[in-house]
Amino acid sequence: MMKWYEIFRSGRYEPQGQFTEDDLQQIADNYERDGAAAPIVIGHPKEEQHAYGWVTGVKRVGNKLLASFKDVVPEFAAAVNAGRYKKVSVRLRNTGNGWTLRHVGFLGAAAPAVEGLPPIEFVGNNGAYIELDFSGEERTETGMTHEDWNRRIRQALQREREIVAFVARHEAKLPPAMRKGLAEFMAELSDEQTVEFSEDGERKRLSPYSFFKQFVTELSERGASFSEDAGKSVFQLSANDRIDSERLEIDRKARDFAAQHQCSYEDAVFAVLRT
Q1: How many of the other CB atoms lie within 10 Å of CB of 114?
Q2: Nearest 5°: phi and psi at 165?
Q3: Under 8 Å between Cβ of 152 and 79
Q4: 68: pLDDT confidence band, cut at 50, 70 and 90?
Q5: 3-class SS of residue 79
Q6: What mean pLDDT is predicted for residues 173-177?
Q7: Most CB atoms within 10 A, among 128, 133, 185, 196?
Q8: DSSP state letter for 139
Q9: What Cα–Cα distance (Å) separates residue 135 from each residue in 109, 127, 138?
Q10: What counts of helices (H) and strands (E) characterise the chain?
């Protein structure tokens, strides 16, 4: 029996705009007509180079968009079941025939655009689509070993942890309007391809991800009206800036946790987010 999971809802999202139930139906119709399976990915990468499974069907039920999955990598399914990825998000593409599904992204600490979606678990009668038993096989259908998949998942988790911790540590340097979506933006920056630039007469090469981290790290907090002074915020938060005050609270808790448990700031942020 095919199992369906909620991946999206109708509503208004910024800056994309309003998504109606008709838009959701259009996404489902386009997906069925196109016939090309959308991949399951971690986060929202610009290029879907690594698929951890595939979307086998999409349908609308009321104001909800549901998807069914197949060929999910066992190690990824285990990570989802263990609570490593409790949130889900989608990437949509606006074509000449309306919106279509590009991929389904599983999120760890990063916040999805659609709040309140139930967590996904690959269990129960979905075994026809997700095989959790290795059955003695040494390799997956893609030719990668199970350890290869485990390593890739660990690397993706580590990268997301680093980004969330980095944003929490440095976002006081930036005005609230620039913080929104910063973690998601950094997640899309390549850490493999490099760009060449000149600094002090020398040619240097850095990946876009490393360059942006260095840029934010070297921003000065002197005179900034966005940092906290003696535990008291010097900027006023509106209702739309709720997430910024929450991240500042995460930063405070993470520093306390790191001091108490003698661990790194990154591990402390991850621990705080899991509680």
Answers
A1: 19
A2: -65, -40
A3: no
A4: very high
A5: helix
A6: 73
A7: 185
A8: B
A9: 32, 14, 9
A10: 8, 12
Contact indicator for 75, 122 with CB cutoff of 8 Å:
no
Contacts of 101 (CB under 8 A, 6+ apart): 27, 30, 31, 38, 55, 58, 67, 90, 91, 92, 93
Instruction: Collect contacts of 17-22 with beta carbons under 8 A, ≥24 apart.
Output: 19/99, 21/60, 21/62, 21/63
pTM: 0.47
Percent above pLDDT 90 for the chain: 9
Give the pLDDT band (50/70/90) at residue 212: confident
What burial class does residue 220 get, using C-beta atoms within 10 Å of its C-beta: 0-12 exposed, 13-18 middle, 19+ buried?
exposed
Handedness of CA 112, 116, 122, 125 (dihedral sign): negative
Instruction: Read off the tokens for 98.
Output: 């309306």
Among 4, 70, 59, residue whose Cα is nearest residue 26: 59
> Residue 105: which of 131, 62, 69 has the closest Cα?
69
50: DSSP letter: -
What secondary structure letter does DSSP report for 183? H
